[in-house]
Amino acid sequence: MAIPGFTLAHELAPRFRDTDAMGHINNAVYITYLEVARQEYWRVLSEDEDYSRVPFILAGVQIDFRSEARVSEVLHIGIRCDWIGNKSFAFGYEIREKRSGQVCYDYAAKRSLPMPAELRAKLERYEGRSLARAVKAR
């Protein structure tokens, strides 16, 4: 899965040991997830899996947390190079939950169709909550 604006996206399945007492991925673990993304970026960039030849070290990390992740989710980590200076460069990252989007479809007419009320009801009953998408104000 590609993440728009990122050169590479790496899929990662969190482990139980990554969680905190609340069942969320512990905030310190995200630094390791970023390291996994850098490792994959280097592997693809250099076509070499000898990580002893990596010509850079981590100098600093800043993370803004927007929502929690859980062990049951599959995460995609996007990575890109944001800038290059005289002695340093910066990677930008984004971690997202893996999702898929579905469209209701009429196979006979070969076109999409509005969400059937019966399917909506089944999904909401199974999920135990309203699944109506919030409409963004313009």
Short description, anyone?
With 138 residues, this protein is α+β, with helices and mostly antiparallel strands.
Q: Can you walk through the features of this model?
A:
By secondary structure, the chain is α+β, with helices and mostly antiparallel strands. It has a domain at 8-97: Thiol Ester Dehydrase, Chain A (Roll). It is 21% helix and 20% strand. The chain is built from 2 helices and 5 strands, in the order E-H-E-E-E-E-H. The protein has helices at residues 29-46, 117-127, and strands at 8-12, 75-84, 89-97, 105-106, 111-112. The strands form 2 sheets. A 3-stranded antiparallel beta sheet has the order 1-2-3. It has a two-stranded antiparallel sheet with strand order 4-5. A hairpin with a 4-residue loop joins strand 4 (105-106) and strand 5 (111-112). The protein is elongated.
